[in-house]
Protein backbone atom coordinates (compact mmCIF):
# COMPACT_ATOMS: atom_id res chain seq x y z
CA UNK A 1 0.00 0.00 0.00
CA UNK A 2 1.42 3.41 -0.92
CA UNK A 3 1.35 6.31 1.53
CA UNK A 4 1.50 10.09 1.44
CA UNK A 5 3.79 11.94 3.80
CA UNK A 6 2.39 14.98 5.55
CA UNK A 7 4.77 17.45 7.13
CA UNK A 8 2.83 19.37 9.77
CA UNK A 9 4.43 21.77 12.25
CA UNK A 10 7.80 20.08 11.80
CA UNK A 11 6.51 16.53 12.28
CA UNK A 12 6.02 13.87 9.57
CA UNK A 13 2.92 11.70 9.32
CA UNK A 14 2.23 8.81 6.94
CA UNK A 15 -1.27 8.63 5.49
CA UNK A 16 -2.56 5.68 3.40
CA UNK A 17 -3.23 6.31 -0.29
CA UNK A 18 -6.18 4.62 -2.00
CA UNK A 19 -6.63 3.94 -5.70
CA UNK A 20 -9.99 3.71 -7.50
CA UNK A 21 -10.72 1.21 -10.28
CA UNK A 22 -10.16 3.94 -12.90
CA UNK A 23 -6.80 4.90 -11.37
CA UNK A 24 -7.96 7.93 -9.35
CA UNK A 25 -5.95 8.63 -6.24
CA UNK A 26 -7.30 9.51 -2.79
CA UNK A 27 -5.40 10.24 0.40
CA UNK A 28 -7.15 8.45 3.25
CA UNK A 29 -7.39 11.05 6.01
CA UNK A 30 -9.70 9.10 8.32
CA UNK A 31 -6.90 8.93 10.90
CA UNK A 32 -5.72 12.53 10.37
CA UNK A 33 -7.32 14.20 13.37
CA UNK A 34 -6.48 11.36 15.74
CA UNK A 35 -2.86 11.38 14.58
CA UNK A 36 -2.27 15.11 14.18
CA UNK A 37 -5.13 17.02 15.85
CA UNK A 38 -5.74 18.80 12.51
CA UNK A 39 -8.72 18.65 10.14
CA UNK A 40 -8.84 19.36 6.42
CA UNK A 41 -10.42 22.57 5.13
CA UNK A 42 -12.39 22.27 1.87
CA UNK A 43 -15.49 24.49 1.61
CA UNK A 44 -17.64 23.32 -1.30
CA UNK A 45 -15.95 19.88 -1.02
CA UNK A 46 -14.14 20.31 -4.35
CA UNK A 47 -11.27 18.11 -3.14
CA UNK A 48 -13.12 15.78 -0.81
CA UNK A 49 -14.12 12.21 -1.59
CA UNK A 50 -17.08 11.67 0.74
CA UNK A 51 -17.43 7.96 -0.02
CA UNK A 52 -16.27 5.09 -2.23
CA UNK A 53 -18.92 4.28 -4.83
CA UNK A 54 -19.33 1.72 -7.62
CA UNK A 55 -22.33 3.35 -9.30
CA UNK A 56 -21.32 6.24 -11.56
CA UNK A 57 -17.94 7.19 -13.00
CA UNK A 58 -17.19 10.67 -14.32
CA UNK A 59 -13.97 11.92 -15.87
CA UNK A 60 -14.63 15.64 -16.06
CA UNK A 61 -11.48 16.41 -18.03
CA UNK A 62 -12.25 13.88 -20.76
CA UNK A 63 -16.04 14.30 -20.69
CA UNK A 64 -16.75 10.69 -19.73
CA UNK A 65 -19.88 9.52 -17.89
CA UNK A 66 -20.64 5.86 -17.18
CA UNK A 67 -23.35 4.15 -15.13
CA UNK A 68 -22.08 0.87 -13.66
CA UNK A 69 -19.37 0.83 -16.33
CA UNK A 70 -21.65 1.46 -19.34
CA UNK A 71 -20.94 4.66 -21.33
CA UNK A 72 -23.85 7.11 -21.24
CA UNK A 73 -23.87 7.36 -25.05
CA UNK A 74 -24.39 3.59 -25.37
CA UNK A 75 -27.10 3.52 -22.70
CA UNK A 76 -28.85 6.42 -24.43
CA UNK A 77 -28.76 4.56 -27.74
CA UNK A 78 -29.86 1.14 -26.48
CA UNK A 79 -31.82 1.29 -23.22
CA UNK A 80 -35.08 2.54 -21.73
CA UNK A 81 -35.30 4.54 -18.52
CA UNK A 82 -36.79 1.56 -16.66
CA UNK A 83 -33.77 -0.57 -17.67
CA UNK A 84 -31.52 2.18 -16.31
CA UNK A 85 -33.47 2.15 -13.02
CA UNK A 86 -32.83 -1.58 -12.77
CA UNK A 87 -29.17 -1.13 -13.69
CA UNK A 88 -28.50 1.60 -11.14
CA UNK A 89 -30.26 -0.22 -8.31
CA UNK A 90 -29.14 -3.81 -9.05
CA UNK A 91 -25.77 -3.20 -10.72
CA UNK A 92 -26.46 -5.06 -14.00
CA UNK A 93 -28.66 -4.67 -17.05
CA UNK A 94 -31.84 -6.75 -16.59
CA UNK A 95 -32.68 -9.91 -18.54
CA UNK A 96 -36.13 -10.00 -20.21
CA UNK A 97 -37.80 -11.84 -17.26
CA UNK A 98 -36.12 -9.50 -14.77
CA UNK A 99 -37.26 -6.44 -16.69
CA UNK A 100 -40.81 -7.79 -17.05
CA UNK A 101 -41.04 -8.43 -13.32
CA UNK A 102 -39.62 -4.98 -12.51
CA UNK A 103 -42.01 -3.25 -14.93
CA UNK A 104 -44.93 -5.18 -13.48
CA UNK A 105 -44.08 -4.00 -9.95
CA UNK A 106 -43.66 -0.39 -11.10
CA UNK A 107 -47.04 -0.53 -12.82
CA UNK A 108 -48.83 -2.04 -9.80
CA UNK A 109 -47.64 0.66 -7.41
CA UNK A 110 -48.30 3.79 -9.43
CA UNK A 111 -51.53 4.87 -7.67
CA UNK A 112 -51.21 7.19 -4.68
CA UNK A 113 -53.41 6.79 -1.61
CA UNK A 114 -56.75 8.53 -2.29
CA UNK A 115 -56.34 10.62 0.88
CA UNK A 116 -53.16 12.11 -0.54
CA UNK A 117 -55.17 13.74 -3.31
CA UNK A 118 -56.59 16.06 -0.62
CA UNK A 119 -53.09 17.44 -0.02
CA UNK A 120 -53.13 18.96 -3.49
CA UNK A 121 -56.21 21.00 -2.51
CA UNK A 122 -54.16 22.72 0.20
CA UNK A 123 -51.59 24.10 -2.22
CA UNK A 124 -52.24 27.35 -4.09
CA UNK A 125 -52.50 26.90 -7.89
CA UNK A 126 -49.25 28.85 -8.24
CA UNK A 127 -47.32 26.39 -6.04
CA UNK A 128 -44.03 25.35 -7.58
CA UNK A 129 -44.11 21.63 -8.50
CA UNK A 130 -40.86 21.10 -6.55
CA UNK A 131 -42.58 22.34 -3.36
CA UNK A 132 -45.42 19.89 -3.96
CA UNK A 133 -43.12 17.03 -4.96
CA UNK A 134 -40.83 17.33 -1.93
CA UNK A 135 -43.78 17.64 0.48
CA UNK A 136 -45.67 14.72 -1.06
CA UNK A 137 -42.63 12.44 -1.22
CA UNK A 138 -41.89 13.11 2.47
CA UNK A 139 -45.59 12.42 3.17
CA UNK A 140 -45.32 8.95 1.64
CA UNK A 141 -43.54 7.94 4.86
CA UNK A 142 -46.81 8.57 6.72
CA UNK A 143 -48.64 6.13 4.44
CA UNK A 144 -45.90 3.51 4.18
CA UNK A 145 -44.20 3.54 7.58
CA UNK A 146 -43.17 -0.12 7.41
CA UNK A 147 -39.47 -0.71 7.00
CA UNK A 148 -39.60 -2.70 3.74
CA UNK A 149 -36.84 -1.01 1.75
CA UNK A 150 -37.31 -3.03 -1.44
CA UNK A 151 -41.05 -2.38 -1.60
CA UNK A 152 -40.67 1.27 -0.63
CA UNK A 153 -38.17 1.77 -3.47
CA UNK A 154 -40.72 0.49 -5.99
CA UNK A 155 -43.44 2.63 -4.41
CA UNK A 156 -41.25 5.71 -4.56
CA UNK A 157 -40.13 5.23 -8.17
CA UNK A 158 -43.64 4.55 -9.32
CA UNK A 159 -45.57 7.14 -7.32
CA UNK A 160 -43.12 9.99 -7.93
CA UNK A 161 -44.29 10.29 -11.54
CA UNK A 162 -47.95 10.23 -10.48
CA UNK A 163 -47.30 13.01 -7.96
CA UNK A 164 -45.40 15.09 -10.54
CA UNK A 165 -48.21 14.70 -13.09
CA UNK A 166 -50.91 15.48 -10.49
CA UNK A 167 -49.03 18.64 -9.44
CA UNK A 168 -49.19 19.79 -13.08
CA UNK A 169 -52.91 19.01 -13.34
CA UNK A 170 -53.48 20.93 -10.12
CA UNK A 171 -51.60 23.96 -11.51
CA UNK A 172 -53.83 24.13 -14.59
CA UNK A 173 -57.05 23.33 -12.72
CA UNK A 174 -57.76 20.06 -14.54
CA UNK A 175 -58.94 16.81 -12.89
CA UNK A 176 -56.30 14.25 -12.05
CA UNK A 177 -55.84 11.49 -14.59
CA UNK A 178 -55.17 8.07 -13.08
CA UNK A 179 -52.32 5.85 -14.32
CA UNK A 180 -53.13 3.02 -16.71
CA UNK A 181 -51.63 -0.44 -16.29
CA UNK A 182 -51.31 -1.05 -20.04
CA UNK A 183 -48.87 1.83 -20.52
CA UNK A 184 -45.11 1.94 -20.00
CA UNK A 185 -43.53 4.13 -17.32
CA UNK A 186 -42.92 7.05 -19.66
CA UNK A 187 -46.18 6.67 -21.62
CA UNK A 188 -48.05 6.62 -18.32
CA UNK A 189 -46.41 9.83 -17.20
CA UNK A 190 -47.35 11.60 -20.43
CA UNK A 191 -50.88 10.15 -20.22
CA UNK A 192 -51.35 11.48 -16.67
CA UNK A 193 -49.95 14.85 -17.73
CA UNK A 194 -51.81 15.45 -20.97
CA UNK A 195 -54.94 13.26 -21.16
CA UNK A 196 -58.29 14.80 -20.14
CA UNK A 197 -61.35 12.76 -19.07
CA UNK A 198 -63.13 13.49 -22.35
CA UNK A 199 -60.30 12.21 -24.50
CA UNK A 200 -57.14 10.19 -24.11
CA UNK A 201 -53.65 11.16 -25.13
CA UNK A 202 -51.56 9.20 -27.59
CA UNK A 203 -47.82 9.47 -27.05
CA UNK A 204 -45.88 9.36 -30.31
CA UNK A 205 -42.87 7.03 -30.47
CA UNK A 206 -40.46 9.96 -30.98
CA UNK A 207 -41.75 11.87 -27.93
CA UNK A 208 -41.71 8.71 -25.82
CA UNK A 209 -38.11 8.05 -26.84
CA UNK A 210 -37.14 11.67 -26.14
CA UNK A 211 -38.60 11.49 -22.62
CA UNK A 212 -36.80 8.18 -22.03
CA UNK A 213 -33.54 9.78 -23.10
CA UNK A 214 -34.01 12.85 -20.90
CA UNK A 215 -34.67 10.62 -17.89
CA UNK A 216 -31.70 8.36 -18.69
CA UNK A 217 -29.32 11.31 -18.95
CA UNK A 218 -30.43 12.72 -15.59
CA UNK A 219 -30.60 9.41 -13.69
CA UNK A 220 -27.37 9.68 -11.70
CA UNK A 221 -24.30 11.87 -11.44
CA UNK A 222 -22.29 10.61 -8.46
CA UNK A 223 -21.74 12.87 -5.41
CA UNK A 224 -23.35 16.15 -6.51
CA UNK A 225 -25.17 18.55 -4.16
CA UNK A 226 -28.51 16.69 -4.04
CA UNK A 227 -27.01 13.19 -3.91
CA UNK A 228 -24.68 14.21 -1.10
CA UNK A 229 -27.74 15.66 0.66
CA UNK A 230 -29.61 12.36 0.32
CA UNK A 231 -26.62 10.46 1.71
CA UNK A 232 -26.19 12.97 4.54
CA UNK A 233 -29.87 12.86 5.58
CA UNK A 234 -30.01 9.07 5.18
CA UNK A 235 -26.86 8.67 7.27
CA UNK A 236 -28.82 9.77 10.35
CA UNK A 237 -31.14 6.79 9.84
CA UNK A 238 -33.95 8.94 8.37
CA UNK A 239 -36.32 6.88 6.21
CA UNK A 240 -36.09 6.54 2.42
CA UNK A 241 -38.91 8.99 1.63
CA UNK A 242 -37.55 11.68 3.99
CA UNK A 243 -34.04 11.32 2.55
CA UNK A 244 -35.24 11.59 -1.06
CA UNK A 245 -37.46 14.56 -0.21
CA UNK A 246 -34.34 16.34 1.09
CA UNK A 247 -32.59 15.58 -2.21
CA UNK A 248 -35.50 17.14 -4.11
CA UNK A 249 -35.10 20.35 -2.10
CA UNK A 250 -31.35 20.44 -2.79
CA UNK A 251 -31.92 19.88 -6.50
CA UNK A 252 -34.38 22.77 -6.67
CA UNK A 253 -31.70 25.49 -6.43
CA UNK A 254 -30.78 27.44 -9.59
CA UNK A 255 -27.11 26.44 -9.35
CA UNK A 256 -28.14 22.77 -9.51
CA UNK A 257 -31.27 21.21 -11.07
CA UNK A 258 -33.15 24.50 -11.09
CA UNK A 259 -30.82 25.70 -13.85
CA UNK A 260 -32.93 24.11 -16.62
CA UNK A 261 -35.84 26.45 -15.82
CA UNK A 262 -33.45 29.40 -15.59
CA UNK A 263 -31.97 28.59 -19.01
CA UNK A 264 -35.32 28.80 -20.77
CA UNK A 265 -36.18 32.00 -18.90
CA UNK A 266 -32.81 33.44 -19.97
CA UNK A 267 -33.36 32.44 -23.62
CA UNK A 268 -36.84 33.97 -23.55
CA UNK A 269 -35.41 37.13 -22.00
CA UNK A 270 -32.83 37.36 -24.81
CA UNK A 271 -35.53 36.83 -27.43
CA UNK A 272 -37.88 39.43 -25.96
CA UNK A 273 -35.10 41.98 -25.37
CA UNK A 274 -34.25 42.13 -29.07
CA UNK A 275 -30.59 42.34 -28.01
CA UNK A 276 -27.93 40.06 -29.43
CA UNK A 277 -26.69 36.87 -27.79
CA UNK A 278 -23.27 38.53 -27.66
CA UNK A 279 -24.61 41.28 -25.35
CA UNK A 280 -25.68 38.63 -22.86
CA UNK A 281 -22.38 36.75 -23.11
CA UNK A 282 -20.61 40.05 -22.34
CA UNK A 283 -22.89 40.67 -19.38
CA UNK A 284 -22.17 37.17 -17.99
CA UNK A 285 -18.48 38.07 -17.94
CA UNK A 286 -19.09 41.11 -15.70
CA UNK A 287 -19.02 39.78 -12.14
CA UNK A 288 -20.98 42.76 -10.75
CA UNK A 289 -23.83 42.29 -13.25
CA UNK A 290 -25.21 39.43 -11.15
CA UNK A 291 -25.90 37.60 -14.41
CA UNK A 292 -24.46 34.20 -15.27
CA UNK A 293 -24.83 32.23 -18.44
CA UNK A 294 -27.22 29.64 -17.04
CA UNK A 295 -26.58 26.10 -18.27
CA UNK A 296 -22.88 26.86 -18.58
CA UNK A 297 -20.08 25.61 -16.33
CA UNK A 298 -19.81 22.61 -14.08
CA UNK A 299 -17.90 21.70 -10.94
CA UNK A 300 -16.65 18.43 -12.45
CA UNK A 301 -16.80 18.79 -16.24
CA UNK A 302 -13.96 20.87 -17.58
CA UNK A 303 -14.83 19.83 -21.13
CA UNK A 304 -18.14 19.39 -22.97
CA UNK A 305 -20.74 17.69 -20.74
CA UNK A 306 -21.38 14.35 -22.54
CA UNK A 307 -25.07 14.58 -21.59
CA UNK A 308 -25.41 17.92 -23.40
CA UNK A 309 -24.07 16.27 -26.57
CA UNK A 310 -26.75 13.56 -26.42
CA UNK A 311 -29.47 16.12 -25.70
CA UNK A 312 -28.53 18.07 -28.81
CA UNK A 313 -29.24 14.88 -30.77
CA UNK A 314 -32.59 14.40 -29.01
CA UNK A 315 -33.48 17.94 -30.03
CA UNK A 316 -33.16 16.88 -33.69
CA UNK A 317 -35.41 13.86 -33.03
CA UNK A 318 -38.08 15.96 -31.31
CA UNK A 319 -38.01 18.94 -33.64
CA UNK A 320 -38.54 16.60 -36.61
CA UNK A 321 -41.97 15.91 -35.08
CA UNK A 322 -42.88 19.18 -33.39
CA UNK A 323 -41.24 21.74 -35.67
CA UNK A 324 -38.30 23.88 -34.64
CA UNK A 325 -38.25 26.10 -31.56
CA UNK A 326 -36.73 29.57 -32.12
CA UNK A 327 -35.07 29.36 -28.67
CA UNK A 328 -32.82 26.60 -30.05
CA UNK A 329 -31.23 29.05 -32.49
CA UNK A 330 -30.55 31.51 -29.67
CA UNK A 331 -29.00 28.72 -27.57
CA UNK A 332 -26.79 27.58 -30.46
CA UNK A 333 -25.68 31.15 -31.03
CA UNK A 334 -24.90 31.68 -27.32
CA UNK A 335 -22.87 28.46 -27.28
CA UNK A 336 -20.98 29.44 -30.45
CA UNK A 337 -20.02 32.85 -29.07
CA UNK A 338 -19.15 31.62 -25.57
CA UNK A 339 -16.97 28.76 -26.80
CA UNK A 340 -14.86 31.25 -28.78
CA UNK A 341 -14.58 33.73 -25.93
CA UNK A 342 -11.40 33.80 -23.89
CA UNK A 343 -13.33 34.19 -20.59
CA UNK A 344 -15.19 30.89 -21.12
CA UNK A 345 -12.26 29.09 -22.77
CA UNK A 346 -9.76 29.82 -19.99
CA UNK A 347 -12.26 28.88 -17.26
CA UNK A 348 -13.23 25.72 -19.18
CA UNK A 349 -16.91 26.65 -19.13
CA UNK A 350 -18.97 24.50 -21.49
CA UNK A 351 -22.73 23.88 -21.85
CA UNK A 352 -23.93 21.49 -19.15
CA UNK A 353 -26.90 19.09 -19.25
CA UNK A 354 -29.33 21.88 -18.44
CA UNK A 355 -28.43 24.09 -21.38
CA UNK A 356 -30.43 22.12 -23.95
CA UNK A 357 -32.69 19.97 -21.75
CA UNK A 358 -35.24 22.74 -21.20
CA UNK A 359 -35.60 23.35 -24.92
CA UNK A 360 -36.34 19.67 -25.50
CA UNK A 361 -38.72 19.46 -22.55
CA UNK A 362 -40.62 22.51 -23.79
CA UNK A 363 -40.89 20.97 -27.25
CA UNK A 364 -42.45 17.78 -25.89
CA UNK A 365 -45.05 19.87 -24.08
CA UNK A 366 -43.66 20.00 -20.56
CA UNK A 367 -44.31 23.38 -18.92
CA UNK A 368 -41.28 25.36 -17.77
CA UNK A 369 -42.25 25.22 -14.09
CA UNK A 370 -42.13 21.41 -14.23
CA UNK A 371 -38.63 21.09 -15.72
CA UNK A 372 -36.85 20.62 -12.42
CA UNK A 373 -39.49 18.13 -11.26
CA UNK A 374 -38.74 16.01 -14.36
CA UNK A 375 -35.07 16.13 -13.38
CA UNK A 376 -36.05 15.05 -9.85
CA UNK A 377 -38.14 12.20 -11.27
CA UNK A 378 -35.11 10.91 -13.16
CA UNK A 379 -32.61 11.50 -10.34
CA UNK A 380 -34.81 9.71 -7.77
CA UNK A 381 -33.40 6.39 -8.96
CA UNK A 382 -29.82 7.64 -8.64
CA UNK A 383 -30.52 8.85 -5.11
CA UNK A 384 -32.06 5.48 -4.24
CA UNK A 385 -29.04 3.57 -5.60
CA UNK A 386 -26.61 5.85 -3.74
CA UNK A 387 -28.54 5.58 -0.48
CA UNK A 388 -28.73 1.78 -0.81
CA UNK A 389 -25.01 1.63 -1.41
CA UNK A 390 -24.37 3.67 1.72
CA UNK A 391 -26.66 1.74 4.07
CA UNK A 392 -25.40 -1.55 2.59
CA UNK A 393 -21.93 -0.71 3.89
CA UNK A 394 -21.74 -2.10 7.45
CA UNK A 395 -19.17 0.57 8.33
CA UNK A 396 -21.09 3.66 7.26
CA UNK A 397 -21.24 6.46 9.79
CA UNK A 398 -23.50 9.45 10.32
CA UNK A 399 -22.28 12.36 8.13
CA UNK A 400 -20.79 15.00 10.36
CA UNK A 401 -18.12 17.36 8.98
CA UNK A 402 -15.87 19.43 11.23
CA UNK A 403 -15.26 23.17 10.98
CA UNK A 404 -12.53 25.74 11.45
CA UNK A 405 -13.95 28.02 14.13
CA UNK A 406 -13.13 31.69 13.49
CA UNK A 407 -15.58 33.40 15.84
CA UNK A 408 -15.06 35.10 19.20
CA UNK A 409 -12.93 33.32 21.77
CA UNK A 410 -14.31 32.77 25.30
CA UNK A 411 -15.78 35.91 26.93
CA UNK A 412 -18.24 36.76 29.73
CA UNK A 413 -21.79 38.07 29.48
CA UNK A 414 -21.90 41.64 30.83
CA UNK A 415 -24.96 42.71 32.86
CA UNK A 416 -27.46 44.30 30.41
CA UNK A 417 -27.09 47.82 31.88
CA UNK A 418 -23.35 47.76 31.14
CA UNK A 419 -23.53 46.58 27.50
N1 LIG B 1 -21.38 32.23 -16.42
C1 LIG B 1 -20.35 33.10 -16.20
N2 LIG B 1 -19.29 32.81 -15.44
C2 LIG B 1 -19.25 31.59 -14.86
C3 LIG B 1 -20.28 30.65 -15.04
C4 LIG B 1 -21.38 31.00 -15.85
N3 LIG B 1 -22.39 30.14 -16.04
N4 LIG B 1 -19.97 29.53 -14.34
C5 LIG B 1 -18.79 29.77 -13.74
N5 LIG B 1 -18.35 31.01 -14.06
C6 LIG B 1 -17.06 31.61 -13.65
C7 LIG B 1 -17.06 31.98 -12.18
O1 LIG B 1 -17.50 33.29 -11.98
C8 LIG B 1 -15.61 31.78 -11.84
O2 LIG B 1 -14.88 32.86 -12.33
P1 LIG B 1 -13.56 33.38 -11.54
O3 LIG B 1 -12.59 32.25 -11.55
O4 LIG B 1 -13.10 34.57 -12.31
O5 LIG B 1 -14.00 33.74 -10.14
C9 LIG B 1 -15.19 30.56 -12.65
O6 LIG B 1 -16.06 30.59 -13.79
C10 LIG B 1 -15.33 29.24 -11.91
O7 LIG B 1 -16.67 29.10 -11.50
P2 LIG B 1 -17.12 28.62 -10.05
O8 LIG B 1 -18.45 29.25 -9.73
O9 LIG B 1 -16.00 28.84 -9.07
O10 LIG B 1 -17.26 27.07 -10.29
P3 LIG B 1 -18.05 26.05 -9.39
O11 LIG B 1 -17.52 24.74 -9.69
O12 LIG B 1 -18.06 26.49 -7.96
O13 LIG B 1 -19.59 26.21 -9.89
C11 LIG B 1 -21.51 25.97 -11.24
C12 LIG B 1 -20.13 25.41 -10.86
C13 LIG B 1 -22.34 26.23 -9.95
C14 LIG B 1 -22.25 24.96 -12.06
C15 LIG B 1 -21.31 27.29 -12.02
O14 LIG B 1 -20.59 27.03 -13.21
C16 LIG B 1 -22.63 27.98 -12.35
O15 LIG B 1 -23.15 28.72 -11.52
N6 LIG B 1 -23.23 27.73 -13.56
C17 LIG B 1 -24.51 28.28 -13.91
C18 LIG B 1 -25.62 27.48 -13.25
C19 LIG B 1 -25.80 26.12 -13.89
O16 LIG B 1 -25.86 25.97 -15.10
N7 LIG B 1 -25.98 25.10 -13.02
C20 LIG B 1 -26.22 23.72 -13.46
C21 LIG B 1 -25.04 22.85 -13.21
S1 LIG B 1 -25.35 21.22 -13.83
C22 LIG B 1 -26.35 20.53 -12.68
O17 LIG B 1 -26.33 20.80 -11.53
C23 LIG B 1 -27.30 19.57 -13.15
The strand count comes to 6
State the shape: globular
Largest sheet: 3 strands, antiparallel
Ends apart, CA distance between termini: 59 Å
Average pLDDT figure = 95
Assembly state (oligomeric): single chain
Rg calculated over all Cα atoms = 23 Å
Taken as a percent bin, the fraction of beta residues is 5-15%
Helix percentage range: 40-55%
Tally of alpha and pi helices: 18
Structural class designation? mainly alpha
Word description of this protein:
- The chain is mainly alpha-helical.
- Helices cover 52% and strands 7% of the residues.
- The protein is built from 18 helices and 6 strands.
- The protein has a 3-stranded antiparallel β-sheet. A 3-stranded antiparallel β-sheet has the order 4-5-6.
- Strand 2 and strand 3 form a beta hairpin.
- Helix 4 crosses helix 7, helix 6 packs antiparallel against helix 11 and helix 10 crosses helix 18.
- The longest helix has 24 residues.
- It is globular and about 75 Å long.
- The model has no long low-confidence stretch (mean pLDDT 95).
- Acetyl coenzyme *A binds next to helix 17.
